[in-house]
User: Fold these one by one.
Assistant:
Number 1:
Amino acid sequence: MIMKMNEYKRQVITVLAAFLIMTVSRSLAAEECRDTVVIDSVVYTVPTRWCGHKMDSTQIADKTRLVRLPAELCFEDYRIYVLPETRDALVKMAAAARADSIELIVDSGFRSAAYQKRIYRRRLAEGESFDKIVQFVAPPGYSEHETGRAVDMVPSNASFAHTEAYRWLKKNAHKFGFYETYPETKEGLIPWESSHWCYQPSE
């Protein structure tokens, strides 16, 4: 009985120690992150989960190279632009999906930091807090959409994870150079975006 009690105590101590280490690590990470964004002269602190994900000049798409996606791949009458190589790969992937009776439709492609900032302005004006918006929308300057390689599939919300299109992409997207860059993870540092796919061909 005493040995069992000692073993139980050791297990409890191990769990508590792990919890304390994780808590301290997260606190230190939060303190180290000093990224901010400015929207209408107001300075907002970027959440820890977005730290280190800011786009640098080498990642941002050259707007003069952007091309329009074929209308049949766009939601309703949206005019969506991406880099030529992204478009070409997406066209091939959509054709392969169609052969499997899966329709891939896109409702967002290239978005500049200025566009991202307009999203925040609109939602802030509607009464949402920055902290709430940033849970689901990348801060201006942090979105992969600025690369011209990212697209959002329809429906571009959490329900996409329950579609046949999502299941098809999970099995086949990598063959065309597309990856789910914000997948579901145990850590959950960046919100899961099942509809968000980025063209990242292997070198």
Number 2:
Amino acid sequence: MGVTGVEAFWLSLFIVFLAELGDKTQLVALLLATRYRAGVVLLAIFVATLAVHALSVALGGATSRFLPQAWIYLLSGLAFVGFGWWTWRGDTLEDEADYSSRGLRSPFLIVFVTFFLAELGDKTMLSTVTLAASQEMLPVWVGSTLGMVLSDALAIGVGRMLGKQLPERAIKIGAALIFVVFGFYYLQSGGLELWHRYHK
């Protein structure tokens, strides 16, 4: 596919920014920003995301060593179509904010632990694993981390200005469609590569 490090950075930033819109961790960010200073919340989100996405990138990089590129594209395409369905279906907040780790007093540590635990196995983590399997690892790590922080910062800022969330349904539908488009792009790329390999 010939994606450069700069392109991988922007692609990761864009994909994770989308994945975070309406995600439960974004709802947690909105809730925590009503309890603690927005700057502290965003700094803790940034550090927690760096940690979780470092693990995600390592998993994606390990996958790329064991699978041929064409199969990685096919699996990435299926994953992105799945993320589109996941986004359209929506997330629930449940009791994520009550990770507020009993015994912790520091707002920074409370937000860090909350986000670290909430991100494990979440859509944004899995999106990062998927991206890292087919792109350069460092740009994916930095881009996905910034995408998450920017998405949460937007939600906090708009939530404070308007006193309510963004138009959630419209955002979910738009983000889901974009995921599906990326999914079909990766599926086409993987399918064409396999076709050329077996029909030379």
